[in-house]
Amino acid sequence: MKKNGFIITCLCFSVAAFSQQKSQKHPQEFTTNNKKIAVYTTADNTKLRLTPTDNLSFTASKQPVETEISVFVEPSKKFQTFMGIGGAVTDASAEIFAKLSKEKQTEFLNAYYDTQKGIGYTLLRTTIQSSDFSSASYSYIEEGDKDLKTFSIEHDRQYRIPLIKQAIKTAGGKLVTYATPWSPNAFMKSNKNVLKGGTLLPEFYQPWANFYAKFIKAYEKEGIPIWGTSVQNEPMATQTWESCLYTAEQERDFLKKYLGPTLKKEGLDKVKIIAWDHNRDLMVQRANVIFSDPEASKYVWGIGFHWYETWTGAQPMFENVARVHEAYPDKKLMFTEGCVERFDAAKYQFWPNAERYGTSMINDFNNGTVGWTDWNILLDQFGGPNHVGNFCFAPIHADTTTGELIYTPSYYYIGHFSKFIRPNAVRVSTSVSRSYLQSTSFLNTDGKMSTVVMNHTDNEITYNLIIATQKTVVKIPAHAIQTLVY
Q1: b (16+ CB within 10 A) / e for 425-443
Q2: What is the tens place of the pLDDT at every residue in 143-189?
Q3: For a tag on the chain, would you pick the N or C end, based on fewer CB atoms within 10 A?
Q4: What is the DSSP letter of 195?
Q5: At 436, is the secondary structure helix, strand, or coil?
């Protein structure tokens, strides 16, 4: 289903309910006194897409009974500070963006990065050299150049850098940008191939560490500040595309002996280093090995993780996120990649794809995650380009034959978080009384609370939102997500 005129028809509602003040100070005490609750809803089998659906008031609350369904928010119990939500600007996304008309490019940028017309992304991930979501493999240096004398990001100036710059401009001049390598050059690896795994040879640990510094400085010279980098995308996966393997011990040693010291030496110690950057299944073991070593740990900002552990047919391992947070509360947690695999154009509007996003985001935030980054921000009508045929979904697709943008339900589900929960918000305690609903809440810096509630059942549900001795009663449609702002 194509969404012509989306920005006008779907998101032209007042932003007063969730506009943010510049002050980073939270009120001493949150209160429901004299507050209205603005409800925004996205629901299957309806036209509701981030649509204002109700304006409610608080009334006195009595002890809820077991036959009622309730969402309980306790504003005095505060947890992690929120960084933001965003997506990845890959070569694929940038190449497809370049094919859009100027009008559609503006619509697309506003849809993701404008806080009023769109969903207000504040994070951006990009790649160091090529990934599978590039039209072909490429490098910033000539093969065999261990001294990096031929280093150049000229390749990125055609598509990727222009899109990143426009995204930053649309976002108001700032996006927290971090970059990840998929593979070192072939001559640096045990298998002499940028594809199909292999390991970084020890004699190239230093040249490869130098490579990160070169990239960061080159991008910053382009006017794109790099907030952080991860060591390696998916370091335990031998892929048909660009990939490189590190055991936990290898990553630890590369971090403490090469990457960390090199960034410091190059004056880049402000750049955050993210470890792991792979699925939730092995993240606890990786954290244990790296963070138990003080020399490695001192260089690492936190752990990045993906959601693809379900490739085995098992369920998502949300509890592993909580285990890392419990064991290493001084380290941050960042969801660095997720997408719906196995592209099928017949499933553009397949609702379970969106519910996968909602479930992951609620669980990850409730387990301590500070930032959440989707994979490709844009792909074509085939789920690419991808040079090894690993075609996937994005929240927005472009039909390059018609020039139209296609908005999937996942875009709106992400928006229920990114539009209403803003940087420096603080998560507060939220619980539900029945498994029919899932919920999380954040207190924004302007004093407004945003509570996200998701209903993954086939039935409309009436529930109480209860805060201390106050409540309101809300109806949520079947297979829907709501954000309550109050």
Answers
A1: bbbbebebbeeebbbbbbb
A2: 999 999 999 999 999 999 999 999 999 999 999 999 999 999 999 99
A3: N
A4: B
A5: coil
What one-letter code names the amino acid at 268?
Answer: L
CATH number (domain holding residue 42)? 2.60.40.1180
Q: Is 21 domain-assigned?
A: no
Identify whether 360 is part of a domain. yes
* 198 shares a domain with 311: yes
User: CA 289, 126, 239, 372 torsion: positive or negative?
Assistant: positive
C-alpha pair distances (Å), 160 with each of 113, 175, 308, 377: 16, 15, 26, 12
Same domain, 41 and 90: no
CA distance 86 to 386: 21
* Same domain, yes or no: 50 and 124: no
Of the candidates 205, 209, 212, the one whose C-alpha atom is nearest the C-alpha of residue 188 is: 205
* Catalytic site residue from 95, 107, 234, 309: 234
6 domain residue, yes or no = no
> Does a structural domain hold residue 15?
no
Under 8 Å between Cβ of 439 and 430: yes
409-418 and 351-366 helices cross at what angle (nearest 10)? 20
CA nearest to 442, candidates 58, 61, 20: 20
Q: Which two tokens stand for residue 288?
A: 């244990």
Query: For residue 101, what are the CA distances in angstroms to 49, 199, 213?
Result: 25, 42, 36
210 and 188 in contact (C-beta within 8 Å)? no
How far lies 100's CA from each of 10, 95, 400, in Å? 21, 9, 7
Q: Is 337 a catalytic residue?
A: yes
Tell me the H-state helices in 238-350. Answer: 248-254, 260-265, 283-291, 294-297, 318-327
Q: Do 76 and 92 share a domain, yes or no?
A: no
| Residue 175, domain extent | 84-422
Residues in the chain: 486
Crossing angle between the packed helical segments 102-113 and 160-170, to the nearest 10 degrees: 60
Tell me which of 95, 107, 309, 337 is the catalytic residue. Answer: 337
Residue 193 to residue 189: CA distance in whole angstroms: 7
pLDDT digits (tens, 9 = 90+) for 355-414: 999 999 999 999 999 999 999 999 999 999 999 999 999 999 999 999 999 999 999 999
